[in-house]
From TrEMBL:
This is Alpha-mannosidase. It comes from Sugiyamaella lignohabitans. It catalyses: Hydrolysis of terminal, non-reducing alpha-D-mannose residues in alpha-D-mannosides. Pfam families: Alpha-mann_mid, Ams1-like_1st, Glyco_hydro38C2, Glyco_hydro_38C, Glyco_hydro_38N. Residues 543-622 form the Glycoside hydrolase family 38 central domain. The gene is AMS1. GO terms for molecular function: alpha-mannosidase activity; carbohydrate binding; metal ion binding. Its EC number is 3.2.1.24. It comes from the Eukaryota.
Amino acid sequence: MSDQYARFNNKPVPVKIPKLYDGRIRQFTDRGGDYHDLNLPHFYDRARNDGTDYVKLEVYDVPKLQRPHFKDAIADAKWRKTSKGNSFGPSWSTHWFRINIRIPSDWKYAEQVLFEWNCGNEGLIYTNEGNAVVGLSGQERREWIIPKDWQLDGKWHQFYIETSCNEMSGNNSPPDPNRYFRLDTADIVFPNLEARALNIDFWIIGDASREFPGDSWQKHKARDVLNRIIDVFDRNNPDESIKKGREIAREYIGSEVDSSQVYKTANKAPVYGIGNCHIDTAWLWPFAETHRKVGRSWATQLNLIERYPEYTFTASQVQQFKWLSEDYPDVFARVKEAVKGGRFIPIGGSWVECDTNMPSGEAMLRQFLLGQRFFQHHFGFRTKTYWLPDTFGYSPQIPQFCRLVGIDRFLTQKLSWNSINSFPHSTFNWVALDGSQVVAHMPPDNTYTAQAHFGDVSRSLRQHKNLDVDQHGMLLFGHGDGGGGPTSEMLEKLRRCRGLSDTVDLLPRVQLGKTVDEFYDDILASTDNGNKLVTWVGELYFEFHRGTYTTQAAIKKGNRVSEVIMHDVEFLATLASLKNKDYKYPTKDIDELWENVCLNQFHDVLPGSGIEMIYEDARAIYQHIAEQGEKLAKEALDALNISTHYIPGHSLGALNTLPWGRSQVIEVPTEKIPREVQASSSFISQANGDKLLVQVQAEGSGVALPTTVSSSIPHATAKEIRKGVFVLENGKLRATIENGVLTSVWDQDAQREIIPKGATGNQFVIFEDQCLSFPAWETELYSLDSRKELSAGTVRISQKGPLRAAVEIENVISEQSRIKTTISLDAYQKPTKESEGAFPDISYLEFSCEVEWHETYKFLKVEFPVDVHSDVATYETSYGAHKRPTHFNTTWEVAKFEVPAHKWADLSDYSYGVSLINDCKYGYAIHGNVMRLSLLRAPKSPDAHADMGSHQFRYALLPHRGGVNPDVVRAAYNFNHPLEIVYLPNSNPADIDGYDSMVIDTVPEPKGDEVLRSFTLDGDKSLIMSAVKRFEDDEDVSRGLLPVRGASGRKSVIIRVYESLGGRARAYLNSKQSIARVFKTNALEDDEEALDILSGVDGDKVPIELRAFEIATFRIELA
Ligand SMILES: [Zn+2]
């Protein structure tokens, strides 16, 4: 029995009723309420001053919404006096402040003096010399620790603040053009650092008291500690009582929370805190503002890196590094230093954090080629992690793209936003169509902009879905989008979280200072190099944002067209650089164009989720790519002696840049065919307005001559067989159109009807499109219930053959909107014995639409019910194709009620199928027997005028025997790569083999396009030679950014080949010029395997074999 224990109890103790004491805890640090003047917040500042004896403000209002750099701004500045309380605007305008401050002499002993600024908008502090110091963003970030010597010398000191009239998230959605921002704070502050530190102690312990489970002693202990801190607090003796309060706090969070020492315990910490700032490259603000967001944010982070030794910051998007190097060379130099020191970590490796539903496979690889080469040039390494926290769904080929560019790790968290099913994994092996894998991690906290709260740390492990095999969670913290990344407050909170874990346990330990690489290394080390991780095969379909495959149609079209332009420019420039020694491969121009293509693929630009301003910029970029691409192609063609303009005596031909034969009818503007050629030509047999139709049969890449039209070729015809019933026919297909829709498509060869009885094809349908949130992004499942067919259209025959038969249909959508569709069928020539295999034996119905679109929250689609039954449909994706169910068995299939695809999608059964090809669309849905293509949307936010106006697009219905096959893949390429008219010099007829036997009126054989057939592929037709370019590091190609790697005096060609349909495939890669050496390389063009060369009569050939869906790159070093 203890002597101390009293026998009688005269002081009854009440139980501390939790909800009352919890309320008291809240009150203690509440900045509002009745008692805020009495409690802790009242003591955060010891003194504050904004009087003109200490702070003088002048402003320069930059005219015309310009964004000058420091030097220009200061040189042009017209300063006027200003003061707190004034407002600055309008939206997007820039205002430079010249600020002079003087620190009162009695603040000398202050540990720190702060300058606090709040104008409600974004800003950046510059030194008098023009060095960027720290970013400001209204609420999130408003303080700068002023230099110590300013504090001590008592003199006036000058600095600048550049402000831009937008918040971190722009200026509302859609933007208000006329916002003004009030300068509320421009003060010098003498802070009470201990009072501020107690606030953070109190905050974290408070979170423990609220969030720890009720059956844990730690929860009750936290409440006790907090109440004791309040008990000792004495507003009449704040310094002493705050000190006492902090001592009590140490019982719960330990004694090391005021420094990085707190992390130096031996305890294993499963939560890896990684600082980041997700800056959308354009979204609710234009690209030009992003330049400055990067400057502000990263300058701020360098500042934090100096102050917090435990801290590492991660930044992605190479474009942003490039902008920083151009706009803020001083900050970029400091970034480079911090990268060297391992504190600032460039990551991601792609040009931007792009959309991955829509970019072509080649564009995806170029994102990395540009990105990794930039990192290598400036930082001396390539990243191992692909970083896409915010992108709206993930192509099934991404793991393969990654492995081809030296990346084996992947990060996202976006699938946590799924609106229907919860994605089942946090850490897993993600497997591509070809079987390639990457380690994928989705931070369990389900955000990339965590505030580093207690709950964020807790969730980073608690919500991990694969704790049985892996116990590592990444905590991605920091304000995004101009909020500038992590704040000192976040780092202070994390120190306390760690101290808390080491003192009372229960909260998972958080660690700082580890890199993203180390995080993944630790996962691999603890899971037998990933062998124990669960597997997810195929696309990471995002169950949200399904409208982004369609919104901003012009941008989608710009993307598709630009990808085609880049293919052609590189193909032609490569061959020109081999043939003509006076021609220089335009590396810099090509890089610049690819950078632009990749920039516009950013995940709020191409998906259509940005404000109107960014689409003005994006359209200008596409215009630039088109003009510059045309110029580069013309220069290359000139070097190849192929003219894009008529020269008397030259022959007209069609340029085929694709590596296979194609037989097509093309429309040529009349002015492209001079009168004398028209008069003497046997190949023109049909005019269409100001265009002439010409049929060409290209046997491969090169220039194909028009085919003479003879009466023996089956012609395309258009007839009105009964009133209002029209038939297009070409000997292979017979299409019947009634009331403006297809009622029958009969395949003559297969003797098969494609449109089910009673159904109608090319049926335009319109849906109400009122989603629950995010109008530009979303279309909801229930929208499908509002399906309405457009009323019957008026039909007339517009082309009667013989090369093309067509009807024109006009549909009214509403009083403001209408569609004009031309359905056409071209002459079809059955392959003869000689031509068999040279051209695919196919014919398709083409639909060319012109739409005037002025709707509000409507979705226009077109449907083709087809007489094919299959439980899966096939969709083209980046360098591959994949299957998705056509049913709604489970909610996982329901979620895919609208899906992304590239140039084609296909519904096939065992014996027969139908493909739906497009020239600029990405949204599809194939369910049951209905194939649906999404055409236009009408969301009003964040762009109030998205998609209003005129649109032109084409699609085609291609029936085929058997399942989906290489003819479909190639037809879709052909559909997107038009044949261009060029002119070749005629050769001397005597040079032509067999001239003697030629009939006199034979078109003279032009000469000079052989070089375009320098590289060909012979073998399995599912292999696609998709890109021909020069080796980046050849002597004559290199820009000097990276060392030359090509053999001196030799030229190398890079050829990309992919297997498009999912089967092992073999071929010969042929080169007309003899080959010195050939390597299989990765997509960064590093040699990996030397291949055999066989010599033949007509040059050299290299046998190649690809796995199903493999993307292979070859470097052919010419002798
Ligand atoms: Zn984003």
